[in-house]
Amino acid sequence: MRIRIVFKLLAMLALFGVALVLPLWLTAYRILSQEGAVGEKVLERFYQEMPGILFYAFFIGLVISLAFGKRILQPLRLLKEAAIKVKEGDFSLRLQRVSEDEIGEVMEVFNEMIDSLRDKTEELSKKELYINTMQDALWVVDSHDRVVDVNPAFTRIFGYTREEVLGTSVYDFFDREGKSIVAQEIAQKKSKGLVSSYKTYIYAKDGRKVPVMITGSPILSGGEVVGKIGVIKDISEIDSLMQEIEASRSHLRAIMESLEDALIMVDRDYRIIQANRVARDRYGEEIVGRRCYEVLHLETAPCFLKGEECPVHIVFSEFTSHRTVHRHLTFDGKIVFEDSHSSPVRDKTGQIIAVLQMLRDITERVQREGELKKRNAELELLNRLSSLLSSSLRAEEVLKKVLQQLIETFEMDGGGVFLFEEKSRFLNCAYHIGVSEEFVRVAGRVKLGEDIPGRVALTGEVITTSDVSADQRITRSILKHSGIKGYCCIPIKGKEKIIGVYCLFKYTEHVFGPDDERLLESIGEMTGLALENIRLYEQMKGLFEGQRQRRLKEQEILLKLSSALSTAIDEPEVIEITLQTAIEYLMADGAVFWELRPSRALVMRLCKGITLKERHQKSDIYSPEMVVLRDRNVILFGDIEGEPHDYYIDEELRSRGVRTMLCCPVMVGEKVLGVVTFVSFTKRRYPEEDIHFVRILLSIFAVAYERTHYYKRSLADRGLAESILNAITEGVCTVDREGKVLTVNNAITQILGLPPDYIVGRHYRDILKNFAYSCPVEEALKGDVSTGEMIIEDNGRERVIQVTSVPLKDKNGLVYAAVQVLRDITREREIDRLKTEIVRSVSHEFRTPLSAIVGMTEMLLDGDVTGDRAKDYLRIMYEEGLRLSEMVSQLLDISRLEGGLIEPILEKVRMDEVVETLKNRFSERFRQKRIEFRCSIGEGTEEFITDREMLLQILTNLIDNSSKYSDDGAVIELETKVSDNYVIIKVVDTGWGIPSEDLSHLGKRFFRGVHGQKTKGTGLGLTLCREILKRLEGKMEIQSKIGEGTSVSVYLPLQGAGYAEKGDGN
Amino acid sequence: MPKKVMVIDDEPFILMMIEDKFKRAGLDVVTLRESKGAMEVIKREKPDLIILDWMMPEVSGIDLCKQIKTDPEVSSIPIFMLTAKGQEDDEKLGLSCGADRYITKPFSPRTLLEVVLERIGS
To answer: Considering only CB atoms, which chain B residues are within 8 Å of A1013?
Structure first.
């Protein structure tokens, strides 16, 4: 190719040469032709021609080089222009190949170069874009470990701007640990030029420690590491996720590991992919990776292929959890029963990827259940046997039934019962099943200690064998060749001796386990006991009948005695009855009762069947009675003369011929009341039961005796108490613990109005009722002193009875009765009520006038009212003050009269003087209201005996009322006359009158009728009048008609107080 | 508009005192000497507060109080019982009938005014 451009140059040179040589040659030819020879002339002419030739040559050369130069220069220019454009970044242009020479090639290469450059540039810009937009941070580090560039993600994640980090050392971003990691990694990169990833933390600008994964790669230049690029991945989220996962994994692992159950995870290939500690311990360390059926069952194929229940298969095929009990093998070959709980493990899509199997070792439970089942069966058997044993009292039947049961239970072919005959020391077959009579004849009688039954009977131990013929222990037995194989012999043990044996046999081999032997042994024992019981029963039956008769007799005696004692209240009577009964029972000849005195001496109270000196007393400590007293125990002398003893026996008894003596204490609880000595003139024996029964009799006696003793004493006390009770005015009644009335005194009849006969014996609730609050009797019976009030209706009048209840307690503090004291407090209550009412109304009535005084004074002081208004205020205050003082004095008068503090002073009173005084008192009022006051003093009333001041008080009040409750210009008349020993003074007015509904209230304290509103008053005037009249033994009558007027008649005894009644009487 | 207080008491001087005291304080006072027919007056006058005596003939203060408190037209009017009944039980009864306050006689007009103002505002 290069040749072509050489050719071009050669062609150009050739053309140039031709163009130069040709004119030279033509010129030389022409000159030579003209000159003909070469000489001076020729040279000269040549020189002359030379410029033209040169010019021509130059022209030709110019034309040729122009022609050729264009062809070479044009592509060069294109190349130059293109290069400039490329430099500016325009990679779009392409050069046209202008020639096929080297330049053309250059252009071709140039085009290729542009293409390649464009691709590179594009790739670069892509890379940059990628770097700028990548999520992960990136840094470029120079050979001095200084940051030379970072991407925007770096800023975003760590907060540092590019400017801030440029030039800083990479180590500034790590903590100490991080620094060492990074230094190590960088050193490795430097030395080996390796790419590596590592985890560390970078401090962000805000101080956070960001977990990162740095992937660093070295920047190589000429085989030298000149820097590093690190891609820094923020793994905070991943990190925390990882931590969480790790935590939950370790949690899970911890749970798995801490479970007491084995846990394995099995995949679809039946391969164990996970196993916890328990599983590894149980099935071997290396089980992970192995097949479950290999590990658990030592099988070579999944169990379900053999038609067995495979939980893994079930979970995978049926998509459900599964629970079952499986027999598994442990690593050391032990068989374990396990409760297997399998459940599916699913992936995200819900696909079952594995089966989680929880295996709980329940071997012990399974075994225990088996054991239990067995025990139950045994118990059932024992139970059945025991019911058999107790169902019959016939020994034969029992033995038979038990044998049947044993054969049935142990699935035997037959058996028999041998009973031991003590006399001959032989065991005889009493009953048999499944053997021929012939065999029994031969084998049915065995000597003690011989053959198997004999040995068993001798040793008392069970013998069993699975095969008689092969058993080495059994050397000599007819059984050996009888065809019997399984055999057992059980002793029937009584309490102390062997009763017999049971034999069971089977024609096939039968293994009796230790449990069976134990069971059989206990059955033998049970049967033995039952048989013994049956024997005992037979013996007892005879005894029992005798006992029964005896009990009946004793009961009869007890009944007789206690009923006799319960009615006896007299001491000697009680003693008599008791001694008589006991003598009869013992069939003794006599008895003496010695009573214990406080002096600790025994004094004879009564003797029966034997006569002793009266006032016989014992205190010598050697006498049997005193010893009985001390020891509180019975002393029996079967024969005083015949038997030796250390006691001092009364000479008197001896002399009377007493042979047998029985001394018994008489006791109430621990307290000894005395001693009874039973005597017999013949030698006697008293069985223990008899003595015991006598003691019972004596204890009954003791109670009765003590009761009568107390009864006697209490009679005296009661007499005194009763007389006191009946003397007091308060009602008294006692009730027992059940609430029944025991006693009442006389006064209660007056208070309750009920006769004692009615009350006694009734429940207190029938009599003491209508309590305001709780019933005191109830409280007293609970043990507290209590007071209550009850209301009783008495002829339409309510009466208040105060009831105070006091519990009566025995010495243990238990309430046995309650005493009620009843008091009629009606009057006290009434007085109380009145007092309260008066205080209430008085305080109320005082409040209104006080309002004026207090309130108005305050207003005057405050300057609320002045001038004439103030005067009005003062006037009202004055009036109200007066009213208040009037009230006080009237109230005082009333209470004095009520309390009897004022006695009327009787004297001769002239009526005209009284009238005169009244006129003076009211002259001002009459004038103001223009009231006409008329008086007429009737015959016989001019002068009479009474209290002058009191009379004036009455009349003043009446006239005051008349003038107050009437209009101006009214008329008030005062008339006097005598009628039936009474002076009648009548005050009549033409006032407003009193409405009939008010009339009945007149005279009540503070009552002020309808007119009260219009007038001032105390509401006490008529009350006072009534009280005075009570004192003067007079009375008052009021008649009134509304709108017409009122007439008040005052009746006074003509002879003064104290004579009126007598006058009436005459 | 001054606040209006109605006083019902059968004792004229009580009315007089309260009227004088309250009027000086700029209150409008309506007095009534009897409880009979008081309801009409109350409905007509629409007072801001009623001071009511207990012991009055015909209709007692307690009954009137009940009437007022059960009539929706006037039930919102506060009622002060002003009475000579000073027992504790009385006060309980008074308050249980709907009275807003229970004041016993003798009373201080100054204090009464204060409590009234406190209730209705001056």
So the answer is: 10, 33-34, 57
Domain that holds residue B96: 4-120
CATH number of the domain enclosing B102: 3.40.50.2300
What pLDDT shows up at residue A520? 84
DSSP A139-150: EEEETTSBEEEE
Among A residues 435-474, those touching chain B with beta carbons less than 8 Å apart: none
Whole-number pLDDT of residue B50: 93
Per CB-CB distance under 8 Å, the chain B contacts of A852 are 13-14, 17
pLDDT 10s digits, A978-1025: 988 889 999 999 999 988 888 888 877 777 777 776 677 778 888 889
CATH no. for A134-239: 3.30.450.20
Within 8 A by CB and 6+ apart from A680, the residues are A586, A588, A589, A590, A658, A659, A660, A661
Nearest to B109 among A844, A848, A855 (CB): A855
CATH code for the structural domain at A259-361: 3.30.450.20
Domains: count for chain B: 1
Q: Are A136 and A183 in contact (CB under 8 A)?
A: no
Minimum distance, in Å, between the CA of residue B79 and any CA atom of chain A: 20
Which helix (H) or strand (E) segment holds residue A417: the answer is strand A414-421
Q: Are A769 and A788 in contact (CB under 8 A)?
A: no
Asked if A1013's CB is within 8 angstroms of B85's CB, the reply is: no
Q: Do B17 and A859 touch (CB under 8 A)?
A: yes
Are B13 and A864 inside 8 Å of each other by CB? no
The runs of H, that is alpha helices, within A270-326 are 277-283, 292-297, 311-318
Q: Who among A843, A880, A1013 is closest to B10 (CB)?
A: A1013
- ipTM of this complex: 0.92
Chain B contact for A1015 (CB, 8 A cutoff): no
CATH superfamily, domain A903-1065, is Histidine kinase-like ATPase, C-terminal domain (3.30.565.10)
- Residue A523's φ and ψ, nearest 5 degrees, are -65, -40
Regions of chain A with pLDDT less than 50:
1, 1060-1066
Which residues of A, range 817-846, sit inside 8 Å of B by Cβ? 840, 843-845
Round to whole Å and give the CA distance between A127 and A151.
Answer: 12
A738/A781 Cα distance (integer angstroms)? 9
Angle between the N-to-C axes of helices A2-35 and A40-88, in degrees from 0 to 180, rounded to the nearest 10: 160
Separation in Å, CA of B60 to nearest CA in chain A: 13
A620/A626 Cα distance (integer angstroms): 7
Peptide bond into B106 cis (omega under 30): yes
Report the pLDDT value the prediction gives residue A695, as an integer from 0 to 100: 86
Q: Structurally, what CATH architecture does the domain formed by A374-540 represent? A: 2-Layer Sandwich (3.30)
Report yes or no: B26 at the A interface, CB cutoff 8 Å.
Answer: no
Asked if B20 and A1010 come within 8 Å (Cβ–Cβ), the reply is no
The whole-angstrom separation of Cα A880 and Cα B13 is 10
**If you classify domain A728-824 with CATH, what class do you get?**
alpha beta
CATH of segment(s) A557-712: 3.30.450.40
CB B31 within 8 A of CB B18: yes
Q: What is the pLDDT of residue A390?
A: 67
User: Would you call A1016 helix, strand, or coil by DSSP?
Assistant: coil
Report which residue type is found at A376.
N
Q: Is B88 on the interface with A (CB under 8 A)?
A: no
pLDDT of residue A188: 74
Question: Which residues on chain A are in Cβ contact (under 8 Å) with B107?
Answer: 851, 854-855
Give the pLDDT of residue A1058.
61
Q: How does DSSP assign A901-955, residue by residue?
A: -----EEEEEHHHHHHHHHHHHHHHHHHHT-EEEEEE-TT-SEEEEEHHHHHHHH
Other C-beta atoms closer than 10 Å to the C-beta of A329 total 16
User: Measured between CB atoms, does B60 come within 8 Å of chain A?
Assistant: no
